[in-house]
Amino acid sequence: MPTNSPNSWEARADSHNLYGFTDLPTIHSRGAVVVTHGKGPYIYDTAGRSYLDANSGLWNMVAGFDHQGLIDAAKAQYDRFPGYHAFFGRISDQTVLLSEKLIEVSPFDSGKVFYTNSGSEANDTMVKALWFMFRHEGQPERRKILTRVNAYHGVTAVSASMTGKPYVGTFGLPLPGFIHLTCPHYWRFGAADETEEQFTARLARELEETILREGPETIAGFFAEPVMGAGGAIPPSKGYFQAVQPILKKYGIPFIADEVITGFGRTGEVWGCQTYDFQPDAIISSKNITAGFFPMGAIILGPELAQRIQDASEAVEEFPHGFTASGHPVGCAIALKAIDVILNEGLLDNVRALTPQFEAGMAHLAEKANIGEWRGKGLMGALEAVADKDTKRPFDSSLSVSERIANACTDQGLICRPLGQSIVLAPPFIITPAQMDEMFGKLEKAIDKVFAEVA
Ligand code: PLP
């Protein structure tokens, strides 16, 4: 909230923080929300105001902000053994236990896990692992990476190159060899005379034509989020993964599911690839893996890629890659607890139980004259604002409609995320029906207020 005092938390936050992904003029005038603590799905600022965080932090605080079991697991591991690495054949017992657990809950019968500190690093590492593998298999020219427009895979130089958003251009990215295919969002990118099935078939043709144009022998991998998250909670068009998977197989291109958001329950199954019924060669996990209580990313390799990367490593004696905190014992202990909490303490059940209420709330708001569509899966969804519902014409971007809606939500004690012209919701899995009513009630007020101003 705005304040003129130079000693206010808001002014101090402004003075010494280089904000990432933040609308700076807005934050300079409104002030940052400086958070002190949380309780359940709520966060509290320095003035004691509460906010229902309908984005679970950044999709990740799925067990809420004060889960005692997770806090206890962290404390217990700090008491036992507070830090170690996973280099040189030394590895913590918690890391061993977590890798066993991840393979057990993965869609793979067997495999191997590699740890990072973040989702970006996990994607970056996966690309390097593919380059490494193909090089030692005698195919060093297999380096190109296929992703999609609107994909979000992270912010390191490689994962930002995979990200299909225009802002990566402000860093002079993507690097050469990163190719972005059409976003599988039928409502926005389908042609007027095209059915959803025809749209999917067109995207599959585009994939195959791209592979043939570039040369299959130059392509190292295809990465996809089961539901695009930061692109605006975009589920795939009907049959999309069933259409692309055989093409990738035909040309020997590994298919990597980026499940940083969808992994561990967000779409109502443990994995998004289970929700959409496809079998990737590897899974990228982060965020929910520790319910946001520790920075961690994990690459879960299915049996074939695990073996091939292992063979390549043996050929040169080692896989020369790793982070100081890869497989950190405290992170692993927290992840073991988080997985237990999500799968066995009712969180996944709650996602499934509350999905109908979530869908009904979204469908109700989508009836508004200036909401073009609602989309989503499980407990992730978006409402897309439009100036004209029939033609799907967006609002003039200078009106900042979604940002204004999000600000009007914040003013009422609700956090939701503007992404392009859409408002994205991804509440924590512990949300109650009453809290969900509170979320939709406040969002409706904000939407009505802003549309009355701009429409
Ligand atoms: N992949 C996906 C699908 C994501 O949503 C994100 C972050 O939101 C990332 C990768 C990057 O993860 P991190 O922010 O931990 O680097």
Automatic annotation (TrEMBL):
Q: Which terms are listed as keywords in the entry?
A: Aminotransferase, Pyridoxal phosphate, Transferase
Task: Name the SUPFAM superfamilies on file.
Answer: PLP-dependent transferases
What Pfam families does the record point to? Aminotran_3
Q: Which cofactor does it need?
A: pyridoxal 5'-phosphate
What InterPro entries does its record include? Aminotrans_3, Aminotrans_3_PPA_site, PyrdxlP-dep_Trfase, PyrdxlP-dep_Trfase_major, PyrdxlP-dep_Trfase_small
Q: Which GO terms describe its molecular function?
A: pyridoxal phosphate binding; transaminase activity
Query: So what family is this one in?
Result: Belongs to the class-III pyridoxal-phosphate-dependent aminotransferase family.
Database matches in NCBIfam families: PRK06105.1
Q: What's the protein here called? A: Aminotransferase
